[in-house]
């Protein structure tokens, strides 16, 4: 694979002739570049009028590589041939270089140019590009590629510093101006050229009063080119290779995508999301651009008007900025009725709202960049989990959350600078274990959790005191909606075709069950290791039921079945008794018709656990046996249920994160240290 490098446009606020005088001081040796051992001229020619000067040099570079690699290669230095074409009339210098050593195994090509700035003829532009093609190198191709690219990028930076060094040297000698080339007789021009290239002290000199510092500066990008100062000022510090990836991807977009291309900040986010792997970033960005065009996302902020219900019950909004100048978004997730919102406005409307928040976030980042005069490309999210409970584990709600996470990860990468979680309850590790596998590792490292009660004390490292919200003990009035339960009267009707399709899709997540009197419905769940988590979510569609969770001391006889098949029905024999053959680990819960129940249980032992539903008999009713129930007209209770087992390793990591963050913000850990509690944690919640 050919590796390529492309520099941004670097600009020196000095005339071309003065920069050329500084450049020539690099030869034949340059102490400022230790790997440059020296050079000699192998060919030189001039045009008749002296306007064009061509020089070819043989340059020796020391090999900085592990001793073993140098020994195998059998060389201590490599030879490059450099060809310079200096045109005084056009005020350009074109440089081409290639390697002679190992030319059959490795091909290195470099092209550089010094030109006059298109908007200011007293300034000089510099551009550089290179390619590396390692065809074969004694089995060390990958190692050589890494070493070569590392050294090359280091020498790029060093080359810039060398020009600045020699410019300062010329200025210290009182040389700040060199006359431009003018047509003259061949002999006079030769003498003038020799003076310029050979003895800077003989040049016409003016006082240093008009001299400017040698730092690079840029006024604006020329056409499709980016300049170094713009990158530093608007995009932040990038390494030479990162700059090169940005320029190459931007140039490719200009060639292949007609019309408007994304802003540089947007392109850079995709490069960062793929660790500046150019091909992977290009693929990810192209897919995102197609998605934006298909869904007209560029017009979202102008076309999306959230329903009044969302504005009232969606507990999220923008609130000033954090201590680093990032826009701050507050989400009171624990106060938000996600199930009610989805049933009232639908999943698609919620997704549209989340997308509009991300679009607004990018817009606010650009505004803060202008306001604070430094690059700000991401925002901070403060998530308050007070009120989070099992209601938030409603399965379609979790699936919708995972879908939104996937969309944001794919199309808004590297927009989240930091996520602060406060007031996390004991149920939070269950939710985190469910969603964390779907969050990119780079994003996951930005999640910080704080479960202590001194919220202002914990937040001051990230927020100024005067913006800490009042509901967290601060003094700043926060206008983010408080959320709350969405009235059922606002739910969409099933007659709504679009909503009916969504309801059907939600129900496909669940398994149906009919419960007869005297014939409970039981689901066997095999747990392989203690401290795993069983989660459940079910809706009572008809009748009343009693739900319980039991631990079977002996595995029930399940009969032949396909591997991984769901085992359900009446599994316990009628002769088995409570206490002797099985024991309840979750208190019986009476569930009424129309209610939705979510819950979880942290297991203490491996083995078989039974999720158990039986018909609820009011006091005084005579319980029918299963045979009588079979001849009764229809089922006594009907339900839809879903369950899932969370791995012990993942849950223990989430628990240890929660338990270690009571006095400060801590990163959410994927560690597997044991939970400090050996007791089973269990809970069920009726959400409606």
From TrEMBL:
<dbReference type="InterPro" id="IPR009038">
    <property type="entry name" value="GOLD_dom"/>
</dbReference>
<dbReference type="InterPro" id="IPR011074">
    <property type="entry name" value="CRAL/TRIO_N_dom"/>
</dbReference>
<dbReference type="Pfam" id="PF03765">
    <property type="entry name" value="CRAL_TRIO_N"/>
</dbReference>
<feature type="domain" description="PRELI/MSF1">
    <location>
        <begin position="3"/>
        <end position="175"/>
    </location>
</feature>
<dbReference type="GO" id="GO:0005737">
    <property type="term" value="C:cytoplasm"/>
</dbReference>
<dbReference type="Pfam" id="PF00650">
    <property type="entry name" value="CRAL_TRIO"/>
</dbReference>
<dbReference type="InterPro" id="IPR036598">
    <property type="entry name" value="GOLD_dom_sf"/>
</dbReference>
<feature type="domain" description="GOLD">
    <location>
        <begin position="507"/>
        <end position="645"/>
    </location>
</feature>
<feature type="region of interest" description="Disordered">
    <location>
        <begin position="669"/>
        <end position="688"/>
    </location>
</feature>
<protein>
    <submittedName>
        <fullName>SEC14 like lipid binding 5</fullName>
    </submittedName>
</protein>
<dbReference type="InterPro" id="IPR001251">
    <property type="entry name" value="CRAL-TRIO_dom"/>
</dbReference>
<dbReference type="InterPro" id="IPR036273">
    <property type="entry name" value="CRAL/TRIO_N_dom_sf"/>
</dbReference>
<feature type="domain" description="CRAL-TRIO">
    <location>
        <begin position="306"/>
        <end position="480"/>
    </location>
</feature>
<dbReference type="Pfam" id="PF04707">
    <property type="entry name" value="PRELI"/>
</dbReference>
<dbReference type="InterPro" id="IPR036865">
    <property type="entry name" value="CRAL-TRIO_dom_sf"/>
</dbReference>
<dbReference type="InterPro" id="IPR006797">
    <property type="entry name" value="PRELI/MSF1_dom"/>
</dbReference>
<dbReference type="InterPro" id="IPR051064">
    <property type="entry name" value="SEC14/CRAL-TRIO_domain"/>
</dbReference>
